[in-house]
Specification:
- By secondary structure, this protein is an alpha+beta fold.
- It is about 55% helix and about 15% strand.
- It contains 13 helices and 14 strands.
- The strands form 2 sheets. Strands 1, 4, 5, 6, 7, 8, 9, 10, 11, 12, 13 and 14 form a 12-stranded mixed β-sheet that branches. A two-stranded antiparallel ribbon has the order 2-3.
- Strand 2 (about 65-70) and strand 3 form a beta hairpin.
Length: about 425
């Protein structure tokens, strides 16, 4: 019997039992759709993360104090960085383009009878926007003179404008931070929601000297972190090395001693988050892949039942000249066709599900713009795996059918 005739016989046998074939492929459909959906959603999260890092900047470096540990438990950061360290980084590190000290300032903001708590309130340097690649939409940024004098000026995001100045031009207007009046000199360009759905436009920036003197009431020059921008992405490693060496010298840290600061680059953050999303995607895909094995077991069970029910048919085919190899190929083809048919349906459902989940996330995550990423390679791999599942789990029933004795098969009732 020719190979193509064997395929035709196998397909006709499947079409005679449409309901059974449909129920058989149900497990494969669920498995393929689950794998495609999980991998696509994981890829969407990874793409969103990369977009977020691109919006922050591709060549920035964060210098922060080391965290103190007691008995292996992280208890807090050491106040080891000052604005003088930041100035030295900008002055002595050749690969550094711009820098900005960062000082936390978290107080309610009031205008008239309306008050709110910004999600982020930072004291920053005049080059902060150059490091963050952030634009000013209206007005301008505060100046070096404001920074030196500790003037009460600020730049706000769109959320603060919407909440406190719904119908007014905020430029030149005043608001109070605690009991201290601040004049708005600029409005930041829109950033939208972060990866976690936090509103990045709910932000207020002030000179870090103002935060230290007026809001914190301290004469110390300690800062919470230093944000640094390298001159080019390819110089980020050189900038990191220069910063580490400079701060080791300034803080009198000997070779071999643990430094009281940490230097983290955007490339390290990107690699870390990429590794995390990759692990999560593989974990989800592995869990979803279990249903493929369950579907394969279902195919094997149904094919074994089919062999039993079609014993007399097998005997007749052998009696008219069909060889055991032909019988085995027929049942293997039936198994693989079932798997591939279920895989095609599962792939289509997985693509639709990933689109639906992405839209659902965007609708409930406070403006987060999750990109739609359909992982075609994952779908192809899943289809190949489905065919392999059909081949492997159909092998035993096919072998059993090919080993039947023609005379015994013809006598079977």
């Amino acid at each position: 019997m020719s190979f193509f005739l064997t395929i035709a016989v196998a397909i006709r046998a499947l079409l005679r039992n449409k309901m059974r074939a449909t129920l058989t492929v149900f497990g494969i459909v669920i498995g393929i759709s689950a794998v495609t959906t999980m991998v696509s959603v994981g890829s969407s999260a990874g793409q969103l993360l990369q977009d977020q890092l691109q919006s922050i900047g591709t060549n920035f470096i964060v210098v922060q104090p080391s965290f103190e540990k007691r008995r292996g438990v992280q208890t807090g950061s050491l106040p080891s960085l000052t604005d003088e360290d930041a100035q030295a980084i900008g002055r002595e590190c050749e690969a550094v383009l711009a820098f900005s000290p960062l000082v936390f300032g978290l107080k309610p903001v009031v205008r008239g009878n309306t008050n709110m708590q910004p999600k982020e309130m930072w004291g920053v340097g005049v080059d902060y926007l150059r490091v963050r690649t952030w634009d000013i939409e209206a007005g301008g940024f505060f100046t070096e003179r404001d920074e030196r004098a500790g003037n009460c000026v600020c730049v706000v995001g769109h959320t603060i404008v919407r909440e406190l100045f719904p119908a007014d031009n905020p430029i030149g207007q005043q608001l109070r931070v605690g009991n201290i009046p601040f004049t708005i000199v600029g409005v930041l360009g829109k950033k939208g929601a972060s990866l976690t759905g936090d509103d990045q436009d709910n932000v207020m920036l002030m000179p870090y000297t103002t935060v230290l003197k007026r809001l914190q009431g301290t004469s110390f020059r300690n800062v919470n972190a230093i944000l640094v921008g390298a001159r080019a992405p390819e110089l980020i490693d050189l900038a990191k090395s220069e910063i580490q060496q400079l701060l080791m010298d300034r803080h009198h840290i000997a070779v071999g001693q643990k430094p009281d600061f940490e230097v983290v680059t955007s490339a390290q953050l990107s690699e870390l988050f990429g590794r995390i999303t990759g692990i999560m995607t593989m974990l989800l895909a592995s869990i979803a892949g279990i249903s493929l094995l369950v579907g394969g077991v279902g195919i094997m069970n149904i094919m074994l039942v089919s062999v039993t029910e079609r014993t007399r048919e097998i005997g007749i085919r052998m009696a008219v000249g069909a060889r055991g190899r032909d019988i085995m190929i027929q049942f293997l083809i039936e198994s693989v066709v079932l798997s591939c048919f279920g895989g095609a349906i599962g792939l289509a459902l997985g693509i639709l599900a990933s689109l639906g989940i992405t839209r659902l996330i965007n609708s409930i995550s406070n403006g987060a713009d999750w990109p739609v990423v359909v992982s075609i390679p994952a779908g192809i791999v899943a289809m190949v795996f489905a065919a392999v599942v059909g081949l492997v789990f159909g092998l035993y029933p096919a072998w059993r059918a090919s080993r039947l004795d023609p005379i015994d098969a013809l006598r079977y009732e």
